[in-house]
């Protein structure tokens, strides 16, 4: 018996109208699935190439050639984008100063262990939810557990990305401002870098202007979509970041007494092996892989079922660890070579490093290069935050992307204005003893991220059917079943305990 296939049209920027628009073709059921598979694998016929085969009626078999779903054009595109999301300021800014105040090598060793044993399994759980659900951070939970309240996890993540980008863009603006400082002569050997940083963050016009510029760049990339926007940008930014980092690390390691900084980073001082250092390293591990805010769920929703998410997850993790190591090898040898202390806190890259670089030949150029790679890392993280929000509003209808990206990007900038003014005009305005910037930072990093990570772990390991999770997570992977079981049991027991410890500590209870 013959049934009917309907091929829906697609009109794209670079592609003509699909020639079989609305044309009904008699087709037998035994060849409907092969046709669907062929269409699904056509390389870049159109950017969105998902094919859904389903029975609309007992007498009709439809192949719905969807024009409103997009995907990564390659595995490396996903890996670079997800690695860019994870690296960000966490690896280049937060890791060095946190390591510097917590003993260097001991902190790095604990950070490495916790990243592999705890943070990576949670990241893989987010990959599972996004890839299996195949939709945005909210609708993926709706697909996996329809009719339940688990949607709030995705909604919380989307809200977190909106708020996070509102104050993250402020720091991104500072970084852009410092790049400009490097080329306009404000960064020089005789400069007062503490005063320069204070002026940079407290000047309302300058702070808001560079915040707006940072958001403009982010919106411009994200409005281009996954393959033509985010993926294309990361294909240039991420390799550029590694090349610049390696070049700066080589220069830093050739300085006099540089090995003292290397020893600080790689030779453990076991007097720092204590509970506070362990909890801080555990928190940094979660922050480093960009988990708990649904960004990885969103990125994984564009990942094909035939892709090995475990291999991708490990690659992303090691790229993040490598960047953290390179950041340490750039900063600490230079800091020790010129007699500075490593425990400088958050002002390390804005106050101490300019002074360090100015003591080197061509220091102004080298510092400009360093700040440029910080810009790269900051932007790649911002892309994922904005995409998480956009994906939840357009709900796979790419026709809405440009309009929604401009509107939401503008809204994020407006919401971020109080954070930008927290270091100047609104510095005295505080809520619960915190400025607006510090309040949002605390809410996201100390409350929402741990709750989000804990919820993802419980959902994957306890709520979902065990066999279904193993099957869906292992699709496209050669990982043995024993490893899959180890991953699932880590999510069941070890990850929740670790997350609760971080959460309780962040609330000041421990």
Jot down its keywords.
510 residues, mainly alpha, Hydantoin permease, two-stranded antiparallel sheet, 18 helices, 4 strands, disordered N terminus
Short recap of the structure:
This protein has 510 residues and is mainly alpha-helical. Helices cover 69% and strands 4% of the residues.
Task: Count up the helices.
Answer: 18
Give the low-pLDDT segments. Answer: 1-27, 42-68
The N- to C-terminal Cα distance equals 70 Å
Element-by-element helix/strand order: EEHEEHHHHHHHHHHHHHHHHH
Shape: globular
Let me know the average pLDDT: 84
Strand order of the largest sheet: 1-2
CATH topology (level 3) name of the largest domain: Hydantoin permease
Task: Give the total of beta strands.
Answer: 4
Radius of gyration: 24 Å
* Secondary structure category: mainly alpha
Report the CATH architecture of the largest domain.
Answer: Orthogonal Bundle
Number of domains: 2
Largest sheet: 2 strands, antiparallel
What share of the residues lie within helices? 55-70%
CATH class of the largest domain: Mainly Alpha
Transmembrane segments: 76-93, 105-129, 150-171, 208-226, 238-259, 279-304, 316-340, 360-386, 406-427, 439-463, 484-504
Subcellular location: Membrane
Membrane topology: Multi-pass membrane protein
Family: Belongs to the sodium:neurotransmitter symporter (SNF) (TC 2.A.22) family.
